[in-house]
Amino acid sequence: MVKQMNKYLRMIVLCFFVALVLVMFTVAVNDLQCIFYQNTTCPAGTARLIGLENDTHNGYNNAHAQNKTISTYNYSICCNNTNSSIIINTSCPGNVTVIRLSNATNAHVEIGTNSNYINGTACFGSSWKKVSCEYPQGSCSAGYACILSMAGTEGINTTNAHVANCSLYNQKVCCGLTNYAPVRPTLYYPANNNISVFERNPNFNWSAAADPDGGFASYYTLNLTCGSCSAGCYQPNIGSLTTTNYTIPNALCVDTSYNWSVTACDAYGDCNTSVVFNFTILSVADLVLIVNATSFGAMALGQNNDTTDNGPPPLVARNNGNVLLNVTVNATKLFAIADMNTYNFQFKADQNESGSYVTSCSQDALFANMSNTTAKTLFCNLSYVDVNDEGQLEINLTVPMSEPPGTKNSSIEVSYVKSE
Amino acid sequence: MKRLNERISLMMLMILAVLLLSIGLTNALGVSPAGKTISFTPSTDVRMDFYVINSERNNLQISLSAIGELSENIFFEQQLINLTAADDRVPFSVILKLPASLEPGIRTSTMKLAPIFPGAEGSMLSAYITPLIPLAVRVPYPSKYSGVAIVVQNVDEGTPVPIYVEFDNLGAEKIFKAGAMLSLYGPDGKLISTMIAPNISIEKDSLGKTQAEPAPILKRGLYKIVADAYYDGIAKAVEANITLGEPLLRARELLTRQLEVQPVSKVALKAYNDWNTEMSVTGFLEIADKKTEMTVFKFQKYSEQEISAFLETSGLAPGKYNLSVTWVYANQIKRDVFQVEIVEKKAGPAISKTTILVGSVCLAAVIIGLSAILLFKRKKTKTKY
After folding, report:
1. How many domains is chain A built from?
2. With respect to CATH, is domain B249-343 assigned 2.40.50.100?
3. Which range of residues forms the domain containing residue A399?
4. Is residue B6 very low, low, confident or very high in pLDDT (cuts 50, 70, 90)?
5. Residue A330 is part of a domain; what is its CATH number?
6. For residue B153, which residues of chain A lie inside 8 Å, CB to CB?
7. Candidate from A17-31, B261-275, B337-351 with smallest mean pLDDT
8. I need a labelling partner for A191 at 20 to 30 A (CA). Which of A155, B56, B185, B383 fits?
9. Domain check: are A274 and A303 in the same one?
10. Which CATH class is domain B27-119+129-139?
11. Shortest Cα distance from A218 to chain B (angstroms)?
12. In chain B, which residues have their Cβ closer than 8 Å to the Cβ of A417?
């Protein structure tokens, strides 16, 4: 029993140790590290921040500083990263100012956030994440590495100061590869739980996400899902958006519950995702007859005329809704002598706006006989997209040879049903 | 003369009347939602809410009715709806009285909204709108049952095509394991690839989808997919013909960039059929105001072909023109424009006197030579006998 317990204990200790090593490795893997190096140049893989030496030229504590481009001081602060693939550079300007130098050489220093010295700066940049520096009394915050310590002679240590390694003075200069993700974007449109969105291609709208490191998010990703909806429903995940609104290119499904969210990311790939909003596009079937009547005027017996030359004009239908429509027609009897469903009264579809319906399944090519009992297909999949949502109902009449004179009337019933 | 004037006036009046009739004659009627599907619960009343949309703000009375297999179960809170110019949308409700039992499957009916005084009075032909709104009830099968469908998402050429198998659980129980083996065929029936749609589970009265892997990368064209699907030990085979993109004829090159002024000029073009079946192509050529129809050409799949057509270029002044080629194929019309140069017809090459002289000498020499050979042969024959 005790033996078995010992076995479990050993396993737990081992697991703990492995976890500890992993955590340490994770924390340390991309840490900035600087060393005081006795040379005018730095070893390969490191970058020189400043040159320094004391008055007797034999040490780096209580030292004056010189610009990294001057190589007359015997000591250097050399910096790199624990991960060799991350390059630390010390060029100015363009990177974070670590300290300022009173002169190019033989200089006193001040912290980077001061602005008394204009003759020299020492800077840090990274190929990975943003560098931040802080200047605490005592010790550096977690994630920050101590670069140097500094002390002045008149009680103020943040300017007019000498340089030393981190263990000597209380005033520290600490820098780290720190980066904060942008804040969560706020979603505007479609609003949460909006169940009557009309547009099939909504213009999604959200707030610009402020970046705590300055400015705003570099790019956004718009994500839409509809759970257990049909596989035919468009569920885009669109990245690299640099604007705070986006109109999706393909139509979403109607009467389907969608979730949407936006992820804001900075240039370093640190991201924050908004809360998830829900919306539904409510299907609307709405057909308008822009022209709902036409007259052929006086016609002679046996005369044929149609509306294809716009004299008289055809009837025109527009899909004002947000779903594809199948449109059918039937009509009351027009001529006294001729039965319906004959060549005397015919109809066909025509485009009023190109591509408004699918020609292969619409009555597009030829005239068909109008029936008074059977609704016949006029348009198949009449589009709802504004630029191509209008079709024409062309009429072709041939007056029967023995038709008695008089006014002829017919009412055409235009029925429609959603086709998606 | 007076009679003619009267006729013209009458005609003008008729045209005006027709134009007046055409202006402002709008008639609109909409419904939202455009349809409804509910799940079957025995012996219950289900209330469904709709809106009539009066986008043109007409004064209209609408009559409601139901047609189809559930028509006797459909009741309206009000049979007539009054729309006034002040109403943009008017709500109405439908009560579906579900019986104790219905035949399993999807039971459908249609609600019809018909205006009572439709059309434009006084016109020879007037039209009115009657929306038809489908109402459906999902009635579960007593045991395990699922509808199976293949859904293909349209993507750009060169991108993996997402192919899904959808299971619509219409049974009375949850489906624990559903998946499929898929085969993809070209239009010639040749197997292109096989895929597996991994297993999923589907709740009762729900839709489940599983994506076939690996997603194939396909060129535009026609394909057939056969899915051998299964759910909890039940096999079901479904197939679907799919179309990726649209047939495309790519005009590659105009071979005759210079045309002479003459009654008939030959125009030669190279075009490529970027579609996986044979395609019949016709169309017409146009230059300035001259238009000629082309005959029908057959293009084999994925093949380039040289075609020629004839075009009248007489009467055109020499210079640069746009030659428009309109292709008509597979319910599509596509236009390509090429630049051509119209030049004067070249005169035939003049034959010089020297050429005639040299030619005559050569001809004489040939005749003499042949005669000599014939004489020599005849002599030889005589000698033999």
Report:
1. 3
2. no
3. 287-418
4. very low
5. 2.60.120
6. 231-232
7. A17-31
8. B56
9. no
10. mainly beta
11. 27
12. 35, 110, 131-134
Least confident range of A379-383, A402-406, B17-21, B173-177: B17-21
Residues of B in contact with A395 (CB under 8 A): 125
Q: How many whole angstroms separate alpha carbon B197 and alpha carbon A295?
A: 59
Q: Which of A219, A247, A281 is the last residue of a domain?
A: A281
User: In this complex, do B34 and A293 lie within 8 Å of one another by their Cβ atoms?
Assistant: no
B131 and A287 in contact by Cβ < 8 A?
Answer: yes
- State the ipTM, two decimals: 0.74
Chain B interface includes A231 (CB < 8 A) = yes
> B249-343: same fold as B146-244?
yes
Query: A283 to chain B: nearest residue by CA?
Result: B33
| Residue among A230, A284, A294 whose CB faces B124 most closely | A294
Nearest residue of chain A to residue B120 (CA atoms): A293
Whats the size of chain A, residue-wise? 420
**Dist. CA B52–CA B130, nearest whole Å:** 12
Last residue of one domain, picked from the residues A231, A266, A281:
A281
Q: Does A290 contact B26 at a Cβ distance shorter than 8 Å?
A: yes
Facing A321 at nearest CB: one of B27, B34, B166: B34
CB contacts of B134 in chain A (<8 Å) are 417-418
- Closest residue in A to B20 (Cα) is A294
Give A41→chain B minimum CA distance, Å: 53
Question: Chain A partners of B30 at a C-beta cutoff of 8 Å?
Answer: 284-287, 320-321
Which residues of chain A neighbour B127 with C-beta distances below 8 Å? Answer: 289, 292-293, 315, 329, 393, 411-414
Cβ atoms of B124 and A410 closer than 8 Å = yes
Q: C-alpha dihedral over B8, B9, B11, B12, to 10 degrees? A: 120
A326, A380 in Cβ contact below 8 A?
yes
**Residue-by-residue pLDDT tens, chain A, 420 positions:** 445 556 665 665 555 544 444 333 333 346 888 999 999 999 998 999 999 999 999 999 999 999 999 999 999 999 998 888 888 888 888 889 999 999 999 999 999 999 999 889 999 988 888 888 999 999 999 889 999 999 987 788 999 999 999 999 999 999 998 888 999 999 999 999 999 999 999 999 999 999 988 899 999 999 999 988 999 999 999 999 999 999 999 999 999 999 999 999 998 889 999 999 999 999 999 999 999 999 999 999 999 999 999 999 999 999 999 999 999 999 999 999 999 999 999 999 999 998 999 988 999 989 999 999 999 999 999 999 999 999 999 999 999 999 999 999 999 999 999 999
Looking at the structure, tell me whether residues A346 and A229 fall in a common domain.
Answer: no
pLDDT band for B325, please (50, 70, 90 cuts). Answer: very high
**Is A24 within the bounds of a domain?**
no
DSSP A170-233: SEEEEEEE---PPPPPPEEESPTTEEEE--SS-EEEEPPPBPTTSSB-SEEEEEEE-TTS-TTS
Residue B191 CA, chain-centre distance (Å), reads 26
| Number of other CB atoms surrounding residue A146 within 10 Å | 18
CATH 1.10.630.10 corresponds to the domain B146-244: no
Note whether residue A402 is domain-resident. Answer: yes
Q: How far is A244 from chain B (nearest CA, A)?
A: 26
Asked whether the beta carbons of residue A292 and residue B126 sit closer than 8 angstroms, the reply is: yes
- Interface contact flag, A289 B124, Cβ < 8 Å: no
Alpha carbon B189 to chain centroid, angstroms: 23
What's the pLDDT at B350? 56
A40 & A167 share domain: yes
Residues A239, A244, A249, CA angle at the centre, nearest 5°?
55
